[in-house]
Specification:
The protein is mainly β. The chain contains one helix and 21 strands. Helix content is 3%, strand content 56%. The longest helix is centred in the middle third of the chain and has 7 residues.
Length: 268
């Protein structure tokens, strides 16, 4: 799916906490909600916003469509293609409130699935914007427009459409001062969002397995293509020794058969 958009803002860092000023710190939980629903059904969920800072903060919540760029970064947009949008089905309350220091508040959202909805993976998101509880709100909002926003991404899975994912390309990537990576290009031609899991096995010239790393758990949206970057050096494991390796990638995308690809990599 190629989504034509009017860009409202670029992707935000999806953090559990964000500093709004030197004395303000906000935490939002959860940052991802996955719902299983049927046509005609309604579900309600809650999101907690905690003010762990020293100042009162005003929070404003609004719904937004979004998609993932090729590298997996969320992009928040005004969508002209609403094929997989759940924004029109969603209501949230309250849209604005003040959080005192050391306190938390709840924002609830309800999703009502139209009766004629076809099985697919739909989505919406809630953008939380933070500003001072008093004072020159407009000026402060301009100052912290990007760094004081956090998003909760909402996946609404209606029915159980079959997954249809291909591994269309596999390559290695290395840039100075960065660990070597394997880049798997996945094409999802189905109508459901899939999440990845699997392993990458590195074998040396003698046939000895020198490392096995995990494929990250990431979403691939319906009718989209994305890169899955797999770092060969995991933080809690010994670094892969320098050398040339044969690489086998096995990705489980929820289909009966596992996706398998092969390539080579030079670890500097």
């Amino acid at each position: 799916m190629t989504m034509k958009t009017k860009c409202l803002t670029t992707a935000f860092a999806l953090l559990t906490a964000v500093p709004v000023s030197a004395q303000v710190s906000i935490e939002v939980s959860p940052l991802r909600v996955e719902l299983k629903a049927e046509p005609g059904g309604t579900t309600t969920q809650a999101i907690t916003i905690a003010n762990t800072g020293a100042e009162a903060v005003r929070v404003r919540a609004e719904l937004s469509d979004w998609f993932l760029s090729r590298d997996g970064s969320p992009q928040f947009v005004e969508a002209t293609d609403t094929t997989y949008s759940a924004t029109g089905w969603t209501r949230l309350a309250p849209p604005e409130q003040t959080i005192e220091p050391g306190r938390d508040v709840i924002v609830r959202f309800s999703v009502t699935i139209p009766a004629a909805t076809q099985p697919a993976g739909y989505r919406t998101g809630i953008l939380f914007e933070f500003g001072p509880a008093a004072g020159n709100t407009a000026a402060h909002r301009r100052e912290v427009q990007v760094r004081s926003r956090i998003a909760t991404l909402i996946y609404v899975n209606v029915g159980d459409p079959p997954p249809a994912v291909e591994l269309v390309d596999l390559r290695s990537r290395y840039t100075p001062n960065q660990p070597a990576q394997i880049i798997a290009i996945l094409k999802n031609s189905g109508r459901r969002t899939v999440r990845t899991r699997g392993t990458v096995t590195l074998t040396d010239a003698s046939g000895t397995v020198v490392a096995k790393v995990q494929v990250p758990d990431v979403p691939v949206l319906p009718e989209s293509e994305r890169e899955v970057a797999i770092a060969l050096n995991e933080p809690d494991k010994p670094a892969v020794p320098a050398g040339d390796y044969y690489v086998e990638v096995r990705i489980d995308a929820g289909m009966p058969a596992v996706l398998v690809g092969e390539t080579t990599v030079k670890v500097p």
